[in-house]
């Protein structure tokens, strides 16, 4: 239920007893879907309000759970037939480095990195490759592959394998409700707020004495 990625060719921080779990959309990347919806509405000459309403009314859930294919998704989002190939190009162009991106290489030398994202593997993984950062993650957990969407408790199950092994874990997400869900499960969480002060908090945690999790 995950995209394993065992960092071949890169010095693995297997000796590290810290695990940094990062969200994909607002942490590693810079809110690409929000940007894409605006572009999509403009391309289709449709109201962004209508597009966002369709997205929020259940399409997002189906997309993140892998319950709809791309072409049907685009058409349902627009309420009309769209050019799937052109739309995918627009989607790919919406991805930009997020606030964590410049720090990933450094962080990967101090902790194990994993990615936990509500997303579609076919959208996310090629972008990680395009930005040459996929190899920095030990494991990549995408909702359409795991079948669980944050803030569901089960979405965090993969993290507990590391906690049960005694690793010191920090989870970072830009959505406060996802962080609260992690904290309710006993996972240390940090909100990636727009002021980006959280980056310094991550740095301090990485350089602190590890506090291993108590196995369940």
What does this structure look like?
- With 216 residues, this protein is of the alpha/beta class.
- The protein is 45% helix and 12% strand.
- It has helices spanning 24-28, 32-43, 48-64, 70-78, 84-93, 104-108, 121-130, 143-146, 157-164, 176-184, 198-206; strands at residues 3-4, 18-22, 112-117, 139-142, 168-173, 189-191.
- A six-stranded mixed β-sheet has the order 1-4-3-2-5-6, sandwiched between helices.
- The model is unreliable at 1-14 (pLDDT under 50).
Q: How many angstroms does the end-to-end distance come to? A: 22 Å
* Oligomer designation: single chain
**Topology as H/E string?**
EEHHHHHHEHEHHEHEH
Q: Radius of gyration, rounded?
A: 18 Å
| Overall strand count | 6
Low-confidence segments, given as residue ranges, are 1-14
Secondary structure: helix percent: 40-55%
Structural class estimated from helices and strands: alpha/beta
Q: What topology, given as strand order, has the largest sheet?
A: 1-4-3-2-5-6
Mean pLDDT: 92
Q: Main β-sheet, in a few words?
A: 6 strands, mixed
Percent of residues in β-strands: 5-15%
Quick one: overall form? elongated
**Total of DSSP H or I helical runs spanning 4+ residues:** 11
List descriptors:
216 residues; 11 helices; 45% helix; alpha/beta; 12% strand; six-stranded mixed sheet
């Amino acid at each position: 239920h995950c995209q394993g990625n065992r960092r071949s060719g890169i010095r693995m921080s297997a000796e590290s007893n810290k695990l940094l779990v990062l969200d994909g959309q607002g942490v590693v990347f810079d809110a690409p879907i929000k940007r894409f919806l605006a572009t999509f509405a403009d391309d289709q000459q449709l109201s962004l309000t209508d597009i966002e309403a369709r997205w929020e009314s259940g399409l997002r859930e189906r997309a993140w759970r892998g319950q709809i294919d791309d072409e049907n998704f685009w058409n349902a989002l627009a309420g009309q037939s769209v050019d799937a190939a052109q739309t995918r190009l627009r989607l790919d162009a919406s991805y930009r480095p997020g606030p964590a991106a410049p720090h990933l290489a450094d962080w990967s030398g101090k902790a194990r990195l994993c990615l936990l994202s509500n997303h579609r593997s076919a959208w996310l993984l090629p972008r990680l490759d395009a930005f040459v950062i996929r190899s920095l993650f030990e494991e990549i957990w995408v909702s359409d592959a795991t079948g669980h969407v944050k803030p569901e408790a089960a979405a965090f199950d993969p993290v507990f394998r590391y906690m049960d092994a005694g690793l010191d874990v920090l989870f970072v997400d830009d959505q406060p409700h996802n962080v609260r869900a992690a904290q309710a499960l006993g996972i240390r969480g940090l909100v990636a707020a727009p002021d980006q002060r959280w980056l310094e908090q991550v740095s301090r945690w990485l350089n602190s004495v590890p506090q291993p999790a108590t196995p369940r």
